[in-house]
Structure prediction request, 159 residues.
Amino acid sequence: MGLSEELSLDAPILDLRHEAILNIVHTSNMIAAAGTPLFRHYDLTGAQFNLLFALKFKKAKVTQSELGKRLVVTRASVTSLVDKLEQKGLVERCSVPGNRRIYHIELTQEGQRLIDEVEPLYRSKVHQSIADLSEEECRTLIDLMERVRARTTILASQA
Prediction:
């Protein structure tokens, strides 16, 4: 089924590039929504899961500001996310020597345990979304999305 039908539009989308972007956004939203019941079971939101996931796979200590850039959220949003996850005992703010205004964000043992449990379940769930794509099709999709992101980054830097 095409996007026009899925969205119950009264007329077809005539701009091919706009339809492509709408497909990306709509598909992303659908995949994100597929994880909601799983996250709810673990008393998490999608945004909280994303922050825990980012911390699980970081290579060095990371600040709230750096997390905001990785997650593409505002400073206020990342502060709120860290506050909530800290209240749940899943992350902690660690002082940065020589700088009293910045904190590194770290997973607690409970946060590590939780993301280690939830992440494979989520991955299995979203893998179902692309189960009928071949490895070559997955590589093509990745390449295309990387090109779109690279071009979007260039355009954003010119604004």
Remarks:
- The chain has a mean pLDDT of 92.
- Residues 16-41 form the longest helix (26 residues).
- Strands lie at 91-96, 99-107.
